[in-house]
């Protein structure tokens, strides 16, 4: 009887399918148990590049919440009627870093000069890639034959971590506990990486509760801990 009751209760927990940009995946995984401890629901995360996730939503993927790495796609979803009206909000401001596992490799913008492969996310798919491209243009870095392009900022990080690139533009949030050397890119070298979230048409009450949770004090503390500027909703 106890087993039957437990099974019934477990089945009653609602699942909230959340599409999350790759740069925010680590933070989302940390937020997941915080939310689940307060609500009768389970968060299911699907991680990818913002552009890819947006394309999946347009194709009918059953996500309920979209945590993008930019503002453009959530705004577009509002225009296209894919998002619930007035649900869009900025949940975090990302920070770009240039990183290498070599403790002596990155000392500042001058580390981009010379030879060596530079990893970055694809600017057509990922906002961190757009920011990286803006930095390279601002600093007039010669990149011909030097760029290693990932679909998202997580792949750019992996290229550097595995030695397939000498250094790369990554999310500062990915550097927690990492060794090596890095340069926190000044924000005046690229457009702000304002990350918006939105509820997708058909989202239920628990999805709305998760979006609201992102602006709570406990959630903002976690977001800040991982190297983002948290935003009070």
Automatic annotation (TrEMBL):
It comes from Actibacterium atlanticum. One of its GO terms (biological process) is molybdate ion transport. SUPFAM superfamilies: Periplasmic binding protein-like II. InterPro entries: AvModA-like_subst-bd (IPR044084), ModA (IPR005950), ModA/WtpA (IPR050682). Keywords: Metal-binding, Molybdenum, Signal. CDD domains: PBP2_AvModA. It comes from the Bacteria. One of its GO terms (molecular function) is metal ion binding. This is Molybdenum ABC transporter substrate-binding protein. Belongs to the bacterial solute-binding protein ModA family. Molybdate binds at residues 50, 153.
